Amino acid sequence: MANQGNVLKNGVKTGPTVNSLISGFIENIEIPNYSFDEQRQIAARLKAQLAEVDKARQAAVVQLRDTRLLRACMFKAFFAELDEAPKKKLGDYAETTSGSTPSRGNKQYWQPAEIAWVKTGEVAFAPITATEEAISKTALAECSLSLLPPKTILIAMYGQGKTRGQSAILEIHATTNQACFAILPNDTWEPDFLYLWLKASYQDLRDLSADRGGNQANLNGALLNALEVPAPSKTEQQHIVARIQAAMTEIDAMENSSRAAMEDINRLPSRVLAQAFDHPESQTPP
User: Fold this and answer.
1) Which among 235, 74, 227, 76 is positioned nearest to 153, based on CA atoms?
2) Total domain count for the chain?
3) Phi and psi (nearest 5°) for 173?
4) What pTM did the predictor assign?
5) Is the backbone of residue 125 left (phi > 0), alpha (psi -120 to 50) or beta?
6) How far, in Å, CA of 203 to CA of 40, rounded?
């Protein structure tokens, strides 16, 4: 392991399909000539050092997990303050819609690629500023699609893995496939407030669809339009958004710091071994 970098750099021959070791390279690697007692002492010291690295790694994992839990708790805490606020049924106060998938067999629906087209895999708790695919104006006119304005909120009604229940804000004009539920800008909810509330309600949305039973737990327009959403004044919504964003900035900094620490810790074992065997005098028993 300590010589892994040297082996990969100097001892590997690149082939057309697989790489292989250069003949005789391993046999020519020089190995420090210590007595068995010295080897055991060095091995014991390295094991102790690597055990400390493992403890540090476990602590970093806990810290990173706690940061993520803090984020979830923060969302819940802010919106818990709105328990007494009036609630309004989403579909009664906001225009909602979904999209469709133009026929892949009709090239006129996909060329020229003129209008962004969102799939549920792109609805992932992040602003949508570009899409993987686009449709033509012909598809927009013929395929039961609406051109959605910026600040439309999207919810993934179904999709692979963690996708179902995720939300995002459109920052561009776009259309969507049939698995996306779109909430157009309206006079009742600030887009950022509604998005953050939906983000905080992610697990509740997944549970809502899972409670329906059946082979596939999907959300649908009826379930989402029936959501009772807190509806304080727009001024209060803006205040809550500002507070959440400030808290998120601090938590993001904590998470980034935890990730950086984890990356450093993950590099430590190779550094410890390299130090031991590149500079064997540092591990030589007295």
Assistant:
1) 227
2) 3
3) -70, 135
4) 0.72
5) left
6) 52
246 and 157 together in one domain:
no
Query: Taking every pair of C-alpha atoms in the chain, what is the biggest distance, in angstroms?
Result: 83
What is the DSSP secondary-structure string of 134-155? EE-HHHHHHTT---BPTT-EEE
- What is the enclosing helix (H) or strand (E) of 176? strand 175-176
Per the structure, the complete domain to which residue 7 belongs is given by: 1-30
Q: C-alpha 58: how far from its chain's center? A: 21
3-state secondary structure of 56: helix
- What pLDDT score was predicted for residue 279? 56
Clarify whether residues 136 and 175 are in a common domain: yes
Mean of all residue pLDDT scores within the chain: 84
State whether 73 and 191 are in the same domain.
Answer: no
Instruction: Answer with the residue of higher pLDDT: 282 or 104.
Output: 104
Kindly report, residue by residue over 64-98, the tens digit of the pLDDT. Answer: 787 878 887 888 888 888 888 999 999 999 999 99
pLDDT at 83: 86
Give the other-Cβ count within 10 Å of 265's Cβ. Answer: 18
The reply to whether 157 and 54 lie within a common domain is no
What per-residue confidence (pLDDT) applies to 214?
Answer: 53
